[in-house]
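Example 3.2
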Amino acid sequence: TWAEGSGSSTSDERRRRWAQVEPLLEVWKAVVTHKAAAPFRRGVPEGEIVQYSEVIRQPVDLSSIRRRLEGKIGHPCSELEFRHDLMLMIQNALVYHERGSKDWMNAVDFKAHIMK
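Structure, written as tokens:
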């Protein structure tokens, strides 16, 4: 895992960074277990990916956010980047789904939960 580190990073740097990431992973766990989180846990289904990518330029889902937190995608993200990714994920859903639809309303509900 990222906490165990890799490459030329020192142990102190890894511990310091993990101390910053660990609380964000706890928040992520609380977010991912919410009832409205189900559609956000994984990327867009394969059958929708072409249409989705025509509308949404920066797709993000909860699994990719976790991988970023752990440093498995790029560099481990900061608290600000974590918040940005969550809001981008919700905004993508609000843009992609028709206003008032079940999926759109789910995104509204999930946004309210995240903003608490």
